[in-house]
Amino acid sequence: MSALKGLAARFKSVFATSASESRMEEEFQFHLSMETERRIAEGMSADEARRHALIVFGGLDQHREAMRDGRGARLLADFTGDVRYALRAARRSPGFAIAVALTLGIGIGVNGIVFGYVDTMLFRPLPARDANELVGVFTVDTRTGAPGLLAYEDYLDFRDHSNAFAGLAGASGVPLNLVSNGSSGASAADMVWGEMVTENYFSVLAMHPALGRFFAAGDAPVGGNADAVLSYESWKLRFGGDSSVIGRVIRLNGSEFTVTGVAPPGYRGIRTFGFWPEIFVPVGMHDVVMPGSRTLLHGRGDGWMYVVGRMRHGWTQQQTERAARLFAMQLSQAYPATDANFGITLVPGSGGFDHPAFVKPRVLTLASAMGLFASVLTLLIICANLANMQLARAAARSHEIAIRLSLGCSRGRLMRQLVAEAMVLALPGAALAALFMRLGPRFESYAVPHLQFRVGIGATTDYRVALFTGLIALVAVALFGLAPALRASRPRLAPSPANVIGTKSRGARPGRRVGGVLVVAQLAMSVVLLVGGTLFVRSMMLARGMDLGFDPSNRLLVSVNVGLQNYDESRGRRFYDEVLARARSLPDVVNATWAFPVPFDTYGRGMALYAPTARTNTREGVVVTNASVVAEDFVKSLGLRLQGGRGFTLADSAGAPPVVVVSRSLATRLWPGRNPVGARARRGGASGPELLVVGVVADATFSSLGDRTVEHAYVPLRQNYAPWQTLVLHTRADALGALPRVREIIASVDPTLPSFGAMTLRQGVESGFATARMAASVAGFFAALALLIAAVGLYAVVAGTVAERTREIGVRLALGSTPGGVLRFIMRGGARLGALGLLIGLGGAIGVAKMMGGLLYGLSPSDPVTFAIAPLTLALVVMIATYLPARRAVRLDPIAALRSD
Amino acid sequence: MAQRHPAEPDALRGSIDMLVLKALSLAPMHGYGIGLRIQQISRGRLEVNQGSLYPALQRLEHRGDVESDWQATENNRRARYYRITKQGRKALGDEVDKWKRFADTIALILES
Questions:
Q1: ipTM value for the complex
Q2: Min Cα separation B28/chain A (Å)
């Protein structure tokens, strides 16, 4: 207790210096006056008494200093002095300070962000109790080893009869037409993605609702528990975080559900790499949510359920897996028709419960480790550069340091000063890193594609990330602050006879050579990144300017899913006809059609076509192509270019002969060298129904960069009813302006039907390019970062050379060298490093560019522009990084330089 | 630079601490009073440089062996009064034991 008080007293005296000083003075004065009074009482004169009191007290100043030392005031005073000194030094060379802040800030920040992502990916904390007891349960084909999802009936047997798990829950994604009356009374309708979950889902996860309650396991008959649980984000976004949402009735796929609870914040479904389910409904409501579909709640073998199990208390994963496999064998004997090669594999919760075929835990770990390694390595290189820089500065100050050492300045004192300097330099960098990291999670929303459902790992910067980054920052400061401090304060730098006589060698210190190698490596790396980044950016620019094959301007898109609304085919047809007719009659509308998928859609659709002449390598002789189901007028409405034949008309109806329109490259593939109009293809295979080709359109790009298949088939909606369509409206002016009236039209036909995905086709194209744009900016950012780091490294090496050769430079100047000559001489060294780095880097860049080939649009991997830009940029940076320190050498006064050692 | 103020030899510094604690073990006292009491206890045989009490007091306070606050003297003047803590008494006991053992050993050697 009193030890604590003592500590408090010490802290108080360090920080409340003035208070301690006045207390000390008052005590001293009290003491002296008491002593003086005692001596006066003994008969001395006042003056004499005072003098004697002072004598027996001892040197006042000496005691004052002893007390100041005792309370650590000296350390503090030294420290503030050091900081002030460092600040002055930083002001003298602002360029250096900025370089340190930038490189260190970005280096630390990148580490924090990468760690944040890895942390979320590998150790994502589920808001569930004892999350380490949870495992993902997948089937595995015992013959091929291919993993799969469980079917519902197998799941039920496992849950109720295997005794391998303490609890077993399942979930399956489902699209939902959501209609809700907001608190303001306004009706909100959208198609959202939710999950149908087993009733015990939340109790197996042992999760606590943020609001309300979850489903109670088995408390209602099948079809009788029309309960819905909202995800926290959905509650915030769609219901404004209104707590009165509990008990509110919403419509899902046309049926009424009651909101009973809100899932805990941050819960985005069990999978790390899945979509973020917005609404959870019990699987017992299957027939209401997915009428007519029998696949989810029936069957064995291959299924649809993502299953998560809670292991029995105290059981290891191996034990659980053994028990589950044993039971799987029993199942495969009981149901040989469906479960013949039935096996079970468990995925630990740390793997994110993702399908092991899509997300391999090992790959995930490897990628994370590589990301962390790369970012830490980057920071190490940055620190090495800064340490080099500090060394160069220390070498330039070796004279000052030597003098201070010889005057009796203790080495510890000197080290403290150098570390204080490093701290002052590092502080703005740390602040920049903190800012950078706050922005980190926002990068993700640019990186992931904008779809009709949200995906992404939702990385955040929590306390662990902050802790890690803080630690990294401290290590960085220690590295680049302490290393030169240790070196500079070695007695080697004290004036030695050799130095005085001037026989110091030309500065070919081994450390300098290591620094040179490091810089060459950095320069080479930045050339590689520069070439890669430029290729990405140029490819991006070309892709933006390319001919899409359709016209994205003034096109409005609005989607509906009438299937989810329980429409049968005839009602669906009536709906499509009526909406289209009324949309066409709107003023300012040039054309309108239904289409699905539209260009740059989130979703896709495929079709297999057979023609005897087709060039294909599939066994059945079919060509698998992308396909859209479209209504009349699709050619004009989408701005496609008809190259032959015709589009669809009302005559291409259900009873008429089936027809198809093909894209130019699909035609070339199916009927090489022939006019496709009038040709016939069979759908699905050689014995499939026959389709007559009535038209050819120019190739159109339906998806973003990378996937460049432009083979596309168009079939009429009237002959191929589809419950999910997008209304495409070609307007005369601003397309979005027509949106309210389109919504009115849809609502007037069916007020309970949600429309979703409303945007212009231009916006669709833009968001299709978002991922590529992000990739290009990331590549560009890292290229710039690498260049900056390498520039700092080169600067440090050249500055070090200048500092060490000051004497030599002095001699050269004294012997008649012109400043220009010295400049050339110094810069030649830097240029040599630059050339070497460029040469090595170009070699690597050619290899990397070749690997990138598949990702580039309209650009050869050996793009001459790119390979001209990169060396020129590097040359410029090398010039600047060399010229700045070289200039210092030129400005040297020869006399001072000669004396410098 | 750090050596500008040569510290008292360790033995003396330790003994000042012990003497201060001993003086305070009787009653709380201000610095001047502690000096007087040490003189009394040692019957004038130990002449301590009066000012060096204060660094010692500061040291003891930081260590938690004594506490201090402002109080009024008999003559109604403000003075910093020091009080020994429980930990201080223990430290004093330990220190006294150590000295006694030391003195006994010396005595043993000298008397043999």
A1: 0.85
A2: 15
